[in-house]
Fold these 4 entries.
Entry 1:
Amino acid sequence: MSNPTEPTPPSSAPVVPRPQVPHRDLLQLTVLPDEAELRADIVRLRAENNAVILAHNYQRPEVQGIADFVGDSLGLSRMAARTDADVIVFAGVHFMAETAAILNPEKTVLLPDLRAGCSLADTVTAQGIRDWKAKNPGGLVVTYVNTTADVKAVSDYCCTSGNAVQIVQSLPEGVPILFAPDRFLAAHVIRETGRQMDVWDGACHVHEAIRPEDVQGQQAAYPDAELLIHPECGCSSRILSAIPDLQLYSTEGMIGRAKTSAAQEFIVVTETGMVTRLEHDVPDKTFIPVSRTACCEYMKMITLENIRDSLLNLQPRVTVPEDIRAQALKPIERMLAIG
Ligand code: SF4
């Protein structure tokens, strides 16, 4: 017989406390607004703030869908230079928002997620360029637009994949050319111009990871498809050694080629977001990504939610100190003047 003064032994059945608040609150979940609601908020806030949304070709489909302008780095730089909006929301990565801030010191430039960086831009620093110049006196530094404002400030010319060949062709003969930071784009420029260049050893992790085997696998699956290869891709040199007369295309160049080519199917050898842009601009043709993993996690950090929040709070802002801005403006303006 049990003693009534002794505590009752624990039951083997688990004791489940009755929740004091709904489970959703315990997990701190909130119901997401639907996309139509988000889009309506963005449209309203954009008008209230006299804002423009500029989106890179590698952005998510729904972000490209809400943007005022979708394009490559060069097109976005041009739009940033000519917009009369008071606020620029940059649906892209940090160096692109910096470029917009360099061109528009009087405007508010927003990057909806400040973590949106670029592995290629991170391969080079301003001090690295200064040291390189010191070892190559008289050399002209051409840097890809995928660089920080600090790096642009110590460069002579900027370029994008769309005009790198034209920029290098415009430089005087016999002058050493220092090209940074993308070694795959540099190889393309050397092939196209015949100019010798000293090349920085940088690459984008997304484009570098695209292998010739990825391209060949898609060619086997889609034998009638034409190749659209971006010059930043790690596969480009090996593919070109097999098909020497193959053209490489900047992202804007891909649009033009897809429109004019007789082909109906294309294998898109760059970041997967480009497929969205091509499907929008050339709706009667089929575009196949080279690989599902050719995806830039930095670009995909921009969402409808953080675009809405950035317009609501006018944060986070990207600014460039005036002394750096004034220096960085020169190579950008030279680029915009040439091509
Ligand atoms: S795709 Fe590569 S180059 Fe473009 S933003 Fe992403 S990391 Fe940078």
Entry 2:
Amino acid sequence: MNQAHESRLIVGISGASGVVYGVRLLELLRNAGVQTHLVMSKTAELTFAYETSHKIDEIKALAHTVHRPGDMAASISSGSFRTMGMIVAPCSMRSMAEISTGVTTTLLTRAADVCLKERRRLVLLVRETPLHTGHLRAMTALSEMGAIIAPPVPAFYAKPTTLEEMVDHTVGRTLDLFDIDVGITHRWGEQDESRRRPPERSKLVTNTKRESP
Ligand SMILES: Cc1cc2nc3c(=O)[nH]c(=O)nc-3n(C[C@H](O)[C@H](O)[C@H](O)COP(=O)(O)O)c2cc1C
């Protein structure tokens, strides 16, 4: 019996601000031995260039398998390719809107659609502000379909002192949704014994540009 799908996770990175969330996810999942299937939209490559000072190949090297956003024949476009589900981090309003309608034009949104139809876990780190009613309606529809809407909103009770700690908290809580504990989450009521020594960050995460357009 092949149980490989139990450690397979799709990571989508779309063109919203916050590419660092996707990068950190890939890094932590690699350390945790999870087989990641990355699909990055064309605009995500643009935001990556704006928000970091690294080469796109460096992020792709963190994934087990990289799929082109236009490759509709990729493994992850079929429900017969079993996975634990998918995280889109960050998730743009454009990709979110496509996923909410089922009218999918990219591999990223198709793979998310597959997770919904197969009743697999789909977590969307939607990022935009402020939100109009159309955005909010799309989020409601997605939640009704079983997706988890998880905007990357920082938690100040963890008393973060760096941007990296804020990112780690959000990423740790996202992985909680898949029962993956990489020891980076500050858990309320458990004090600091719940946190193990955090896995080291690559330069991709620590050396992000501070300014955003
Ligand atoms: C630097 C930059 C930051 C952006 N930030 C956001 C954002 O936070 N949220 C969003 O929904 N769109 C944002 N956009 C716009 C999206 O990239 C755009 O809507 C694009 O068509 C999304 O396509 P995708 O979902 O296929 O990546 C941003 C664009 C750029 C260039």
Entry 3:
Amino acid sequence: MTLSQKPALPGDKIAIIEEFETGENTFDDGQSIRSLVVGTPEFDKTSRIARISGMRRPAVAKSGDVVTGSVAALMNNMFAINILYINGKPTHAGLECICQAKGAKKRILVRVGDIVTAKILSLLNGVIHATISEPELGVLFTQCIKCGAKVIAMSNNIKCIDCGYIEERKLSTRFGNSDFIKFNSN
Ligand SMILES: [Zn+2]
């Protein structure tokens, strides 16, 4: 197995247990060593320990802050947001936050690439935990997954104005009336 230096997300496989033992921010699932956090895998070949170096300590995001960004990854029970704005101010710190998405197997809350707004709940071991379960939080901007056209809100769904495709989302009450479309051209 090739040892990756790419950033790992929670649940990512970083090594196999025949080759390494679990270090900081990792767990083993009986076969593989997986990451518990967002961070960079590090491998000590002498002690054969795999660990994850947590993300840069986020000095600029704190509990209660409202962040806006794009959905970077979807996992079974959570998703990661690449933070672009903190309390309305642009940030280039490369911060990510993780939202729990309980019940998301049945319900589509967000898709990768959606622009969402979330509230920071806590910072634990360098991981920023956030939520979108308040009316003003959730998806601000998205597009039709089938054809890429503009969508309109229909209660808890979105509907494509072009092809008519309907899909679920956890929409923000501010969906459709903000200027977040500009993010899309970045
Ligand atoms: Zn469409």
Entry 4:
Amino acid sequence: MLARQALRSLSSHSRLFSSSSARQTKVAVLGAGGGIGQPLSLLLKTDPLVSSLSLYDIRGAPGVAADVSHIDTASEVTGYAADKLDEALDGVKVVVIPAGVPRKPGMTRDDLFNTNASIVRDLAAAVGRVSPEAHILVISNPVNSTVPIVASVLEQAGVFDPRRLFGVTTLDVVRAARFLSGITGASPSETPVTVVGGHSGVTIVPLLSQSAHGKSVTGEPLGQIVHRIQYGGDEVVKAKDGAGSATLSMAYAGAKFTHALLRGLNGEKGVITPTFVKSDLYASQGIDFFSSNVELGVNGVEKIHPVGPISAEEQKLLDAALPELKKNIEKGKAFVAQS
Ligand SMILES: NC(=O)c1ccc[n+]([C@@H]2O[C@H](COP(=O)([O-])OP(=O)(O)OC[C@H]3O[C@@H](n4cnc5c(N)ncnc54)[C@H](O)[C@@H]3O)[C@@H](O)[C@H]2O)c1
């Protein structure tokens, strides 16, 4: 009873999903049996813009699907076993990918490259073959490299459309709003922060100077909150003590970004959020993927917003982010070129 009430309130009242519902959409989760995949599937089941959920994993997706399918929302849910990837992708409009291994204490996101690069490459190839027009949302780390991997695979297949590929950096945005709220005492809904760059350590660049509440934070507290936004994931990895990285907050962030994209795809105007996409902003420096505010529309990426006015401290952060980002992107591209 309580759980049912909680879910109702989640789908109808929370900030996660707006109640407008128009065209409905088939969404696939690849890695649905995992720590992120399970709660993400649950949240997507409660999204009124999702008409059908296709859950795939090399382990456990049919079980997750059977469980989630009993939730009393309108969408259909189907689970697919390891050998049913093509069936899982049939007719999907949006594919969310949280497949891969998470960090253990002491690891950076880049340490995951060796395992996750090939997982993401193979899943991207399947999407390119079965549903080449699908929008692909990459959660698997290291996002700074896995997104270029997906782009290169789709390019090789001749089906890459940069408007339909997104690295999910929403957790950095969610953390920034939450942490700033903790300092200022305002509600997180009043403390949104644009986060640009990439999704790991120094490549995460929060633009607090652009936030009404954020610009009041200066001196040591500013340095502390920036560090916390950049390394918030480490707090979770450490606290979980070997059992993985952020899963619940990531599922929330993944569902939030998916919902924003679905609103854009349904024709809603003015849906703007940071995401890591193919971008011209720093392409002249050899960095052709970058996260900044992006307007989402019927075709996916509608407009990439520039970084905008930033403080001298933020310029320093950006200067530190760009070379690391460049390395991460090149590593992803080189992996596909050598595959
Ligand atoms: N973008 C972000 O902000 C963010 C935040 C947290 C975690 N992550 C990343 O998300 C990924 C998943 O994390 P998790 O905690 O859910 O890990 P997990 O190990 O709990 O789950 C991963 C799932 O992927 C599945 N999988 C592995 N290979 C697969 C394949 N080829 N096809 C389909 N499924 C496959 C596994 O069976 C498992 O169920 C990790 O790479 C982690 O680093 C990203």
